[in-house]
Amino acid sequence: MAELVEYHQPNEEIQEIIGQVPNTVVRWGITFSLILLLTVIGVSRYLYLPVSIKATATLNAKEQYFRVVWMKTDPAVDYVLKVSENDLVHKNDTLLTEINSQTGKKKYYTSPTGGKVAIFKGTEQMPRASVLMVVPEFSDYIVELKVPVSGAGQLRVGQKVILRLDEFPESKYGFLIGEVATTTLIPIDKFYRIKVNLTNGMTTNINQRIPLQASISGTAEIITENTTVFNKIFKYLT
After folding, report:
1. How many domains does the chain have?
2. Tell me: the pLDDT tens digits for 84-110?
3. Shared-domain flag, residues 120 and 154
């Protein structure tokens, strides 16, 4: 015998209550959505999205090493040192005199820069030679960037530059900050050469002093535009 199952359909009043979303919920939903949208718009007006160009960087000290290499091969020619190891010399000081005993002729080697004297024997090409070097106190640097031709039209004097150095990890030393000093419209080997002035010298953004040396290589990021997220989205939509 089949079992009888009774089904009672809700009346119209109950169906209307179940199917109707309360007006309060709708109003709160709309209000929350508007608040969220306005918050996102407001925050996006203060979040900056920098646009940049990548480049390679070279920092060369204005005062470079000076080196004199000599080797006695002629019995008639003698070399007389006028300085000793670790001496401090000034620009135009005499370092070495070459004397030819047959002619009486003398040749003087002077230093083009001030610095400390280092003397040692031999070079890779001339192991029997003597070498004298004047090591200057590095202070000022010439910073040059090689910028790819693509996008270089956005370069302007005064733009901010972030310099990350290969030998000094950013995690420990931070980065140097500078600004574009000069630009050129003539590419060399598909690159533009531009000069950069360091804002805080060799002191980084986290107040770390970079040890001074003759030459340092790295990468650069030139900030060509520093627009807000809001302006970026608005520009994209329009």
Report:
1. 2
2. 999 999 999 999 999 999 888 999 999
3. no
